[in-house]
Amino acid sequence: QLQLVESGGGLVQPGGSLRLSCAASGFTLDYYAIGWFRQAPGKEREGVICISISGGTTNYVDSVKGRFTISRDNVKNTVYLEMNSLKPEDTAVYYCAAAYYSGSYSWAPLNDSDMDYWGKGTLVTVSS
After folding, report:
1. Which residues partner with 71 through β-bridges?
2. Distance of CA 60 to CAs 3, 10, 48, Å?
3. Could you report the per-residue pLDDT of 7-39, keeping only the tens digit for each?
4. Which of 17, 28, 100, 112 is the most exposed place for a label (fewest CB within 10 A)?
């Protein structure tokens, strides 16, 4: 059974911080790029940030630049998303997703079609 399980979502005030975790079970993340995606009500899912297998490459959307940080711990088989300076527009269900090695250790995709495994999501609500 191959699963990704997100945790850490909740309610946070604008300007606050939140840390999400994505734990893999049934497989190792050693050969997967891992990304965080989000979907707000009425909108399509958006690729937010992704870290490569090597950990040396990160791709992200401009809206989270300087605010979100992704990291991976292969020993714990877990990926983290540190979110700072949160804004109401960050409110969404956040999903982690894994993309299997495609020939590059620096690949960090933000496209739904590139991902092989998905978590069920965790809700982040930014509101005062």
Report:
1. 80
2. 24, 22, 5
3. 999 999 999 999 999 999 999 999 999 999 999
4. 28
Are 14 and 83 in contact, with CB atoms under 8 Å apart? Answer: no
CA distance 95 to 117: 10
Which has the closest alpha carbon to 108: 33, 55, 28, 16? 33
Reduced 3-state DSSP string for the chain: CCEEEEECCEEECCCCCEEEEEEEECCCHHHEEEEEEEECCCCCCEEEEEECCCCCCEEECHHHCCCEEEEEECCCCEEEEEECCCCHHHCEEEEEEEEECCCCCCCCCCCHHHCCEECCCEEEEECC
End-to-end CA distance of the chain: 39
Q: What is the mean pLDDT of residues 88-106?
A: 97
